[in-house]
Design goal:
By secondary structure, the chain is mostly helical. It has one domain. It has six helices and two strands; from the N terminus they run ββαααααα. The chain has a two-stranded antiparallel sheet with strand order 1-2. The radius of gyration is 21 Å and the shape is elongated. About 15% of the residues are buried.
Length: about 180
């Protein structure tokens, strides 16, 4: 099941099943931006109107925002809205774009693998005590929520998904290049 979505350059790009799932998840999770605004508004009202500040809003809003921005990276890649040097990309033929995409995917894949490995090391340290027991890193505030550990775990998971996305995009573009040679 593949879906198409217009890319920033106006060409039609195929979305694989993973990209489609990320697109749908991202659109669903975008509601959390409204939730963040609402709980922040609640904090302002409680603090300044009732002189009763909360201990949970700031950290929770920061956690939600951070989580959404992490997911935003794979969402941007899934929808083909990532950063690209369009001055060069838009000036070349569709076949040359395929070659540029393949180079992008190869270097991006290598970089994403290294980032995922680094994120794994950081996550492992924030999730486990040196002696191996599960111990989620907390914020150290009055709320002391495990948000830092959860964000590091989400970052690792998102980078693993990015590695998979890049591998799938690389394979798709190699197949497109093969199809253009046959024609």
């Amino acid at each position: 099941m593949e879906k198409t979505t217009p890319s920033s350059s106006g060409d039609e790009e195929t979305m694989n099943i993973l990209d489609t799932a990320i697109y749908r998840l991202g659109n669903t999770l975008s509601v959390l931006f409204i939730v963040t605004a609402l709980i922040s508004f609640y904090e302002v009202v409680m603090r300044y109107a009732f002189d009763a500040p909360t201990i949970w809003v700031h950290e929770t809003a920061s956690f939600i925002g951070g989580a959404l921005f992490i997911i935003g990276g794979i969402y941007a890649y899934a929808t083909n809205k990532h950063v690209r040097v369009v001055l060069v990309y838009d000036a070349v033929s569709p076949r040359a774009r395929l070659y540029l995409n393949i180079v992008h995917h190869v270097f991006g894949l290598a970089f994403a693998i290294m980032l995922a490995y680094a994120a794994y090391l950081v996550m492992q340290e924030s999730w486990f005590a040196p002696w191996g027991d599960l111990r989620l890193e907390t914020s150290g505030s009055v709320l002391n929520a495990p948000y830092p550990a959860l964000l590091k775990g989400l970052l690792f998971a998102a980078l693993c998904v990015l590695v998979l996305q890049m591998a799938l995009h690389l394979l798709q573009d190699i197949n497109r290049l093969r199809m253009t040679k046959d024609v």
